[in-house]
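User: Hi! I have a protein structure encoded as tokens and I'd like to know what sequence might fold into it. I'm fairly new to this, so please keep things simple.
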């Protein structure tokens, strides 16, 4: 009996083999012994193979032997023996004329009968994709370094401006001018503190309790000469929020604390300023509470200042309401945000702060 000719040389190409050859994706069809029955033109072009020499060759012997990975042969043999499949097997090919290429291989077992087991192997070249990813990562790394440098320069510039303002305040003769220069110094220092805290935080959400704690520690160090006499404390839950919202909350806290330091404890009084933040399913509340002398009862004795405008503007951005409680026991200013549609928010209360 004459020897049987291998299937890949029998008669005219079937429709299936024609589809394999015409595939735009790099694919090859193997028999159970990993001999190539057909290969797409795109496979040969992608990996620099002679299309005429590929059919009938053993896959491990293709090219200069770069397809002869023992691990790949084991995986293909296991796929041929059962219904297992090769999913996203990644390997590196060292092509003679194209260098190192990163490829991902998928293989499936096709069975017409047990004597005609076929393996359909698809190969995706991810070299350019990986190179693009590395390029993007390098750009992000360079951007982070540049941003850090800019933040350092901003922090230094703010410190210089604050120093110039304080020097000017010491030199001027007018008490009113000195007051305004010191007020400007306090605000520049508060912005510098905020910038420093955010620059030190990682990308992503900001944990509010440690953020506000460090902010108040910086304010206390720069504006409270005797921390034993006048204490500034922070309490809160484990809430976190975005960087943009944390900036607004930090500015509000800074304005309210500065206002309390300036007006709640005249004549060198002592006391305690408490900053609190609480959040639940219904919303969140930021409050600054002092145990000072309270606000004047007569509206004519209250002069709206810059602090009032800043707090109201920031509260509007946060879709929050501002509430004020004052009396002999001190003053509490609360920023209340309710998790509902903007049209349903509590009516905004105008704050009269003498900042």
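Assistant: Happy to help. Inverse folding works backwards from shape to sequence: for each of the 355 positions I chose a residue that suits the local structure. Here it is:
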């Amino acid at each position: 009996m004459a020897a049987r000719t291998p299937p890949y040389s029998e008669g005219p190409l079937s429709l299936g083999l024609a589809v394999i050859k015409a595939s735009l994706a790099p694919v090859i069809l193997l028999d159970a012994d990993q001999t190539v029955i057909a290969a797409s033109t795109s496979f040969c072009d992608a990996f620099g193979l002679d299309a005429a020499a590929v059919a009938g060759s053993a896959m491990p012997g293709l090219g200069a032997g770069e397809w002869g990975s023992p691990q790949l042969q084991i995986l293909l043999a296991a796929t041929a023996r059962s219904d297992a499949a090769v999913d996203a097997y990644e390997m590196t090919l060292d092509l003679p004329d194209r260098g190192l290429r990163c490829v991902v291989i998928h293989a499936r077992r096709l069975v017409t009968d047990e004597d005609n087991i076929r393996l359909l192997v698809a190969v995706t070249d991810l070299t350019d994709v990986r190179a693009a990813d590395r390029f993007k990562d390098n750009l992000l790394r360079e951007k982070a370094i540049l941003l850090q440098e800019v933040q350092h320069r901003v922090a230094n510039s703010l410190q210089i401006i604050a120093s110039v303002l304080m020097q000017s305040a010491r030199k001027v003769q007018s008490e009113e001018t000195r007051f305004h220069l010191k007020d400007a110094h306090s605000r520049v220092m508060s912005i510098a503190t905020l910038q420093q805290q955010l620059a030190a935080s990682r990308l992503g959400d900001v944990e509010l309790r440690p953020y506000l704690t460090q902010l108040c520690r910086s304010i206390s160090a720069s504006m409270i000469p005797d921390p034993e006499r006048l204490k500034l404390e922070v309490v809160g839950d484990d809430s976190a929020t975005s960087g943009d919202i944390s900036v607004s909350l930090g500015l509000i806290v800074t304005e309210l604390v500065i206002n309390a330091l300036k007006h709640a404890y005249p004549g060198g009084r002592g006391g305690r300023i408490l900053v609190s933040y609480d959040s639940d399913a219904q919303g969140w509340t930021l409050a600054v509470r002092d145990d000072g002398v309270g606000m004047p009862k007569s509206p004519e004795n209250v002069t709206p200042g810059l602090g009032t405008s800043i707090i109201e503007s920031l509260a509007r951005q946060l879709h929050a309401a501002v509430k004020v409680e004052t009396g002999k026991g001190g003053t509490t200013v609360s920023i209340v945000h309710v998790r509902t549609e903007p049209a349903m928010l509590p009516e905004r209360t105008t704050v009269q702060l003498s900042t």
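A useful reference point when you look it over: The two ends are 108 Å apart (CA to CA). Feel free to ask if any position seems puzzling.
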